[in-house]
Amino acid sequence: MSNRLGVMYKLHLPKTLRDNFVKNRTKIVIMTGTKRPDSATNQLDESGGSRSMRRREQTGPRRGKPNRSPTRKPTAGAQDLEPFYIEKHDSEHRVVVSPQPATVADPIADTTSTLQDIFSSLPGHPHRFAYALAGLLFAPKSPAPFGGARMTPGYVSFTGPDAAALLPYIVQRTYASYATARERRVLDFVCRAVNRVLALHAAGLKDQLDERVMQGMRKAGHLPWTGAALMPEHLRHLDTEGAERTVTTMEFSVQRTAGIGSGDIDSGMDLSDDDL
What we know:
276 residues; 2 strands; extended
């Protein structure tokens, strides 16, 4: 079969269409833009005819209303979100994440002072609870800025010589990460870690808290990563409020080695689990 330009085409038509073509001598024009009979079009499509012919029919312009994507309401950008900060609960001995009031000009200094006051109000040296907090936060599986790659998690940036440097480091890094990501996740994580330390102490779970203290000392680089170690006397548990506290500050040289992310000692706090 040939078109008007004399080009030969070989058609593979179903038997019913071929018989009809021979009987009635129906004229079928290929690729000329001429409208074909509806019966011939349907039968060509059913028989799996020319791909180019079907493609032209499927991708042709649609009639009626134009195809427009649904209108979406604009969402507030990260910079428009209301700022949050960590503060002490009004009536309970714990901390919460709350909207930052206009009266709080420096949330880093405010939160650091809050944590220092809370830990100082407990029986025992406040550095005990700072180390326990580090033991919960400093782990590769923790969110940024404390977690990260197993061999080089974020907390290795801490180089403070003593426990007094832990709380300022933790709070400063927390708010720096929050300012970058504008997500509450890191604030909630630190808030829950602080409350976990307070709950362990309130429940009298001395051994679990001692374990977190030793983990915090190792992760802070204040104890060798491997081998036996004794807890300094001033960091040990005190049972009563009236017990005399030894106000001692010990300075350490940071000791870290390759592979700090390995071993059971690096099991940080899992947000989905509760120790109590």
